[in-house]
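Long-time lurker. I teach an intro course on protein structure, and each term I like to show students one example going from raw sequence to a predicted 3D structure in token notation. This year I'd like something fresh instead of my usual example. Would anyone be willing to generate the tokens for the chain below so I can use it in lecture? Attribution to the forum is fine with me.
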Amino acid sequence: MLCVSLLIVTLDNTILNVALPTLVRELDASTTRLQWIVDAYALVFTGLMLVPAAADWRCWCASPCGSGPAPIPC
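-- Reply from a regular --
Happy to contribute to a lecture. Here you go:
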């Protein structure tokens, strides 16, 4: 699960880095603003990925044996 989320965040940041020249042209963004955009985007995106991960972990721990997914929906 951790590897998949890391792949998604890295891929999404790569897409953002490809879009940086367009952001400079369209928004007339400085280097400082570009750094803020990249950092804020990564922080928010990673934070939003914690919510489903926490829900999945709670369901995992709620299983009867503690070693598999819960048999009932969480």
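Some talking points for your students: The mean pLDDT is 78. The chain is about 75% helix and 0% strand.
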